[in-house]
């Protein structure tokens, strides 16, 4: 018998007896998101999950009997970097239900999901690498996570802690069909557009975004638009639409000069680019519009037509009103046809992303 | 081992073998929502749920081996109204996992939840009667649905199919704390405000809302505001805040003359009231504002301060832009503090409500 996602997996309100944690967790990556996750697990009053290890590029620890949060960092620091060819077989032999969290951006770690899932180990990840790669690979991971004892959780790949993926899954599972999705999927870009609208130069806005941690340390990762294309692919696939990278139409956010600039040349390249952004923002404002970088996904006989580009939207519309580092996902379906279902809010940040990962772990543990 | 809510409970994409339905369902009420639910279940290609009966005020059928959707209506029509003192014991003895759906507004049916849950039968309901009553009763239902084999699902009591309740549960389960919720919880009122803003008289707008099925057949149920107070209580409780009906502060939407008018006198009473609505809408428009009926829930040391009243909001804000029959729920928490998490969309309608009920059934079945 299983547990509905509609009740609290953790912290029952009644005086239920303290139960043995029902899920063990191994965490790859103890940086922003991984660190926040470990703190959140430690902070739960009656956690149904228990940490049994962690790995970083510098060291790793795995103890089947559990590791206290206090001991974890020291044990990782004392040991050698993990050898995945030895660690994965050990995790697969773990004696109790186990979930592996991938809070890295590592291609190598994303490469072990299939072996883990096939062996009954659940995988929960905010990393987009596996889900946004070839669609056939995503299907294999999803099928492994849907047919055996293991679960594959990728809720936090889009919108961080916002309930986007599971809403799409719920809609389609009940027989609804997604017609289209329009989405602003980058908190960084929402912030940059907002600053440019206020008259700030793009180069200064990028510097602020980096300083505040909104942008990646190398802001070209945000400005290339590749991150948004990946999220759009994942959204389309979560909506049960076929979508391959090569078919996505993109209109670049910045020129090749910015995309290919070396870190030293980036400020100059941004200054040159910034003028065009400011002019575009002014022209839009004069028409009562604002510029947003919008991913549009349209269903076409089971396939997704994906278009990612800067779009002029009415200032007095949900897209036009986006502020801060908010994301907006607007879902139109057969049932939500007259007016879409909209989810809006901060779509990035270690705490909300970690909370999204934790909620997937709690659902597996329940 | 259990199933995460983050994957499809239904329709695996791989060639998984057809499994025996893992949950049987008995439906009270076969009107708008109950009827849509039965159609949706019949429409699923590989439904993990099976209908074993239904009851209305006119008749009922219960067959432990299952009832086809085609036979159901005729069997109900041929039989006598249910005697709950005999039907409930029969349902409790059902040989397989069973969920009872209450798609009625019946106080009598809401009275059987506790016996069902205590006996291991799950309950899923869009009816607000049990959840918005005394808080102690809601706690008992929630605890019964969290500690045994049975589940208590009330997602569709607020916002119909919008993912509101489970979002609040996910936030609080992962250690986040709700600070405040602001919500427009009535599609009918959103529609009426929109019409009055366009210069339509309130009495005409109400007539349109009834004709289109937005309002209850007796529109006084919408205009009294009691429906919104109930939803606000449920939201507060889902956010783990104590909230009792007697503590809710409300500023009425209409005068006692409307609330207590007989159906024949209602049009006259509405005409008298309408002038005040139109004047209020005009005055707000002159200030760049709009009037919305907003429930504000503020956390205060574990208790909810609930305030429900007409509020002037900026026209260029999510509340100001609400159209059609949309609901908006704006959740501010420790983690979503700088900018709230917002969920917006049609918050009523048989199809989206039934889909919400079905998704809870699928999660129980998974």
Automatic annotation (TrEMBL), chains A, B:
Cofactor(s) needed: a metal cation
This protein's pathway: Amino-acid biosynthesis; L-threonine biosynthesis; L-threonine from L-aspartate: step 3/5; Amino-acid biosynthesis; L-methionine biosynthesis via de novo pathway; L-homoserine from L-aspartate: step 3/3
Reaction catalysis annotation: L-homoserine + NADP(+) = L-aspartate 4-semialdehyde + NADPH + H(+)
Keyword terms, alphabetized: Amino-acid biosynthesis, Methionine biosynthesis, NADP, Oxidoreductase, Threonine biosynthesis
Domain Aspartate/homoserine dehydrogenase NAD-binding span(s) in chain numbering: 29-151
GO biological process: methionine biosynthetic process; threonine biosynthetic process
Domain Homoserine dehydrogenase catalytic residues, every copy: 163-362
Protein EC: 1.1.1.3
A molecular function (GO) term: homoserine dehydrogenase activity
PANTHER family hit by this protein: HOMOSERINE DEHYDROGENASE, PTHR43070
Family: Belongs to the homoserine dehydrogenase family.
Protein name: Homoserine dehydrogenase
Species in which this protein is naturally found: Rubricoccus marinus
Organism phylogeny: Bacteria, Pseudomonadati, Rhodothermota, Rhodothermia, Rhodothermales
